[in-house]
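Lecture 7 notes. Example A: sequence first, then its structure tokens.
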Amino acid sequence: MTISPETRDRLTASIAQLVRTGRQVSTRAAAQLYGELPSFGWALLLPLERDGAQRCSSLAAHAGIDVSVASRQVAALERDGHVERRPDPDDGRASLLSITERGSLALAATRALRADWALGALSAWDETDARLLSDLLDRLVADLEPFAGHRPAAGTAVPAPR
């Protein structure tokens, strides 16, 4: 099943606008949405809370970032007391990271801030529309993930906008 060029163009334009708006909201509302956590803290603490102790490389994969970036961010979370490091019992050269009680409390506070923000931003939405959008966004993310980081081959022409 294919979609029309008009629908494709509208959809890609809407996604681009959503990303831009998300960046603007994130920048302006970081303190409101993340509380005491740095903005990257959410993406790194959630997998620790959900899946338990893991290596930095696993956290990097969950967050979709390079291990070197995750390592610097984890170090900041560790300094702030949100994560703790212990030797990996299966490989003494590696470390396992765990969320601390302080990290769990920060996530809970962040969840509350996000819930308040979402309730205000989506106050005109009804439950059916909100669930439908959530389901469609989950589907979109799943369909986009295989293409994350995918670049057109060198020399591939990018069609001009119509």
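Example B, a different protein, same format:
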Amino acid sequence: MSSSSNTTYFIIGGNRGIGFNLVKTLSASTDNVVIAFRGLPSLPKNKQLEDLKKSRDNIHTVQLDITDDESVNKIADEIRKTPSFQGIDILLQTLGSRIPTMRS
């Protein structure tokens, strides 16, 4: 755990569904919540997250596209820019993805 009394959660896919509900619950405390999501903050699918972020100082967002190597490689630098960041204590991956099935 980080040296401060607050826990830092890093949630991949926290902009809707189960991930967004985790963000709402975890950010109700003073713990830091860093959310990685895909797409622009202005997209309709990210509106709920952006609205919640405006009302809570402990929510920080970074953009991440796990299908893009460059995005994955630079995410550590983006996370380090998070205010009061001292490390990730808990990583939650709530991102869903479609894996093509093989048909015979």
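Note on Example B: The domain at 8-93 is CATH 3.40.50.720 (Rossmann fold). The chain has a mean pLDDT of 83.
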